[in-house]
């Protein structure tokens, strides 16, 4: 089974950093991802996708990402549910990120040393980075294509 998602978009607000009762950092933010087409008025529409990061990645995201920054996120889709105050079951779908890349540098590069990105293990690993060869041709044989 495979559950992977890669998104590129802009933050709609600054990330919110909180800690669980056991002291684990968790950060949440929303990514606005443009659709490939425009509506009847000629305006481009966007999807607003909730993103969750954990531990060191959550702290780094909260420290260095700000509203409006162009960001790439790699992770998995997760659906959870809870019962609200009225007793109704509420479902939440979100992306749990394990790799976040900052695609724009901030106005103050001294305070933004991590423009290459973060992953869940707090280390940059080009061997597992899906954005490392962005724009380069992909070597795939016809036998590997599903169509």
UniProtKB/TrEMBL annotation:
It comes from the Bacteria. GO terms for molecular function: single-stranded DNA binding. Keywords: DNA damage, DNA recombination, DNA repair, DNA replication, DNA-binding. GO terms for cellular component: nucleoid. The keyword DNA repair applies. The keyword Phosphoprotein does not apply. One of its GO terms (biological process) is DNA recombination. It holds the Pfam family SSB. Residues 104-121 have a biased composition (Polar residues). A motif (Important for interaction with partner proteins) lies at residues 142-147. HAMAP family: SSB (MF_00984). This is Single-stranded DNA-binding protein.
């Amino acid at each position: 089974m495979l559950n992977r998602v890669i998104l590129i978009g802009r933050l709609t607000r600054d990330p919110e950093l909180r800690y669980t009762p056991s002291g684990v950092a968790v950060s949440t933010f929303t990514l606005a991802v443009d659709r490939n087409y425009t509506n009847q008025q000629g305006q481009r529409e966007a999807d607003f996708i909730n993103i969750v990061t954990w531990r060191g990645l959550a702290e780094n995201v909260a420290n260095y990402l700000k509203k409006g920054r162009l960001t790439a996120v790699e992770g998995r889709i997760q659906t959870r549910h809870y019962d609200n105050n009225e007793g109704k079951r509420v479902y939440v779908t979100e992306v749990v990120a394990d790799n976040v890349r900052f695609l724009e540098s901030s106005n103050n590069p001294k305070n933004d040393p991590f423009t290459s990105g973060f992953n869940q293990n707090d280390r940059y690993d080009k061997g597992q980075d899906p954005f490392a060869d962005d724009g380069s041709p992909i070597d795939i044989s016809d036998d590997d294509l599903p169509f």
